[in-house]
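Narrative summary of target 7.
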Amino acid sequence: MSSAVIQVENLSVWYPLRSGIFSHVDRYVKAVRGLSFSLRKGEILAVIGESGCGKSTLAQALVGLTPWHDGSYSLFGEKVEVKSGASWTSAREKIQMIFQDPFSSLNPRQSVSEILCYPLLTRGFSRLAALEKANDILEKVGLSSDVLGKFPHEFSGGQRQRIGIARALMLSPKILVCDEVTSALDVSVQAQVLKLLDELRKSLDLSLIFISHDMQVVKAFADRVLVMYLGETMEEGSVESVLRSPQHPYTRALIRSIPTLDRGCPPEILGGNIEPLPDDFLGCCFVSRCPESIDACRKKNIEMHTDGFSGVRCLLCAK
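Modeled conformation, tokenized:
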């Protein structure tokens, strides 16, 4: 698990906001701002944070579904030209995405056979070869070949998510980006899907980026954790160091907000809302909601402090 299969440096994703009768761009929503991280071979890297922190934008950027404003990207040591469509065509054979909603991510007008075979047919495979690969992948995700002629509405949520996983595996990628893949499923089905993903990771030698809100799942499933807030990394490290001994005030607030069965220890809700920052703001993006902030937190450009294994973006933690 020492070699990096993904290396991202200074990733930024900006969404333009238009106004006026000519729809000119007058400002941007900076969903991801200067984010850097790596993913090691065979590793499960969990990305956590509140809704609106940029997790799904990060996932879409990694597979080329949303354009990069800036940054560099390498897969297995080979640079991806993020502005080039041809480069993304090659990259998607190495990295694929499993979406949050297993129903809306599948075309209701296509049969399972059409959904699974399409990626191979567009790359010049014969219909017979594509069907053989589809049968093999369906067996790996726990479904029979009988489902090939059926349509998405004929399946349960768990079955649809297995079809989504099968589609992601059709090009034999080595990296899967899992965007809240269990959030739309019942608890018992969640456990089945997580077990399946872990089995596939081991049998197919996969590396996973696992985006989730469920801290308990992250503790049990992931190897490392990246904590995001307003498109930036707040803290990064092993599950043990980040979730059991958090350093950043935001990470501690997330953990305190987890509901428990102890009525005497209710969850502590973090006050305030995620709000975009002005372009000239230099301080910590969490400062307006941080109970431990000082004046310097608003005035200094705070860098990520790392020891090679874990890191934290906090002026107080760096002292």
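The domain at 4-94+173-312 is CATH 3.40.50.300 (Rossmann fold).
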